[in-house]
């Protein structure tokens, strides 16, 4: 299939582009390189440098590529920042997505696979969280993802575009085959922060609270390997192409790791000592977040294959080692 990967130079987008190429799809990346990197592009995929807020450029891109499917991953994703700068998130995430939907509708796109988030659920009312869990986002970022899911539903009804909204839990890890090496700049997530500390790029890791009701008192999250995540996108296209109706599905593992487990395992894998300092809890953080991935298994036939903590961390450490070599 001809697939446009919007945000395809980013961390997750590049892994999705790689997976689609590996399975014989024709891939066309559109990215403004605000957080995406040229280093994450592949020779077999064509690349257009453009912003989703540039309606004309987006239109030209769709006109020249005429994609049958698109993956939409172009978004801002810092939950904390979204609470301080909601206007920025409205424009980039919501207006940008509407621009994509309008271009998709104008140019006859049949299928959209959308990068949604567990942030649409808000704090867990029960665990593990399935897709029927109430959607009450607690940060504006999560709200933008939920709003886009709702626009997709409307465009699905009104314009016949079929979509899959994939609700990612905590994406982590790097390509198992080592084909992607772009590092996120100024990361806000735990694993890249721990890696930077191990690589000597950061003096210490702040542990946001050790008084949660978890085994070691620190927050537990459902980390999913980005190769598993990417496979979910490819399988979502297969499903839609085979006639399925639009769907919303969790991509997670239902296996949790605490902050201290991540730090200790990184010390073991890297052979480096990591200085960690317990600070107060971060506002809005839940003690435990876990996905119920039963629907992904039943409906898509998807299950995690490489999301164990050692694979997540060792594939990431391989990439971060470059920081030490530089
Ligand atoms: C993980 C754990 C922190 C940093 C975020 C978004 C969510 C989704 C995934 C995209 C928590 C702790 C972290 C640090 C720490 N994104 N921590 N010290 O908050 O689960 O989810 O990314 O859709 O929407 O909110 O991920 O990596 O920030 O935190 O102790 O310096 O690590 O408290 O327990 P989170 P995270």
Which tags fit this structure?
326 residues, single chain, binds UDP-4-deoxy-4-formamido-beta-L-arabinopyranose, two-stranded parallel sheet, alpha/beta, seven-stranded parallel β-sheet
Helix residue percentage: 40-55%
The bound ligands are: UDP-4-deoxy-4-formamido-beta-L-arabinopyranose
Rounded to the nearest angstrom, the distance between the terminal CA atoms is 39 Å
Shape: globular
Tell me the fraction of residues in β-strands, as a range: 15-25%
**Average pLDDT for all residues:** 97
What is the CA-based Rg, rounded? 19 Å
Major beta sheet, strand line-up: 3-2-1-4-5-6-11
**What is the tally of helical segments?**
10
User: Helices and strands, in N-to-C order?
Assistant: EHEEHEHHEHEEHEEEHEEHEHH
SS-derived structural category: alpha/beta
Description:
The chain has 326 residues and is of the alpha/beta class. The chain is built from 10 helices and 13 strands. Helix 1 links the parallel strand 1 and strand 2. The protein is globular. Bound molecules: UDP-4-deoxy-4-formamido-beta-L-arabinopyranose. UDP-4-deoxy-4-formamido-beta-L-arabinopyranose (WQD) binds next to helix 6 and strand 8.
SSE layout:
Elements: E1 2-6, H1 11-22, E2 26-31, E3 46-49, H2 55-65, E4 69-72, H3 79-84, H4 86-106, E5 111-117, H5 140-159, E6 162-168, E7 170-172, H6 190-198, E8 205-208, E9 220-221, E10 223-225, H7 226-241, E11 247-251, E12 257-258, H8 259-270, E13 276-279, H9 294-300, H10 309-325
Parallel strand pairs: 1-2, 1-4, 2-3, 4-5, 5-6, 6-11, 7-10, 8-13
Antiparallel strand pairs: 9-12
The structure holds UDP-4-deoxy-4-formamido-beta-L-arabinopyranose (WQD).
